[in-house]
Amino acid sequence: MAELPPVLLVEDSPKDLELTLAALEKCQLANDIVVARDGEEALDYLYARGRYAGRDGSDPTVVLLDLKLPKIDGLEVLQQVKGDDDLKHIPVVMLTSSREEQDLVRSYALGVNAFVVKPVEFSEFFKAIQDLGVFWAILNEAPRRFRRP
């Protein structure tokens, strides 16, 4: 059986990271979860550079992307991913605490696949992450990139 592509989780908040990982674990996903703590690290993973230079070539099944990130913010990561012919097929879900309409509008203008505002209440947050994990890692059929030799 072929190994499933990973889920790329881009989150800088230790608390939100811990909750998100716990919720995804409860989904019993077979996918590995790769964690990037800032936008630069996320792009390094996606482009297989820096500390990820030797990783296998499979793209993530989905990128769960926080909006407010250090080094390179989520909107810039989204813009680079959706503007790159080799990466734009990867589903990107903005997972953020921002309720600012401009963030929502800009995210969709850049090509985000979904925009989810993190619920404040723990049980609602947990359920939202579980639903995301089930949909994007299990139910959604995403196209795969064919790499040239």
Automatic annotation (TrEMBL):
Keywords: Phosphoprotein. InterPro entries: CheY-like_superfamily, Sig_transdc_resp-reg_receiver, TCS_response_regulator. Coiled coil: none annotated. The modification 4-aspartylphosphate is found at D66. Gene3D superfamilies: 3.40.50.2300. Residues 6-133 form the Response regulatory domain. This is Response regulator. It comes from Aquibium pacificus.
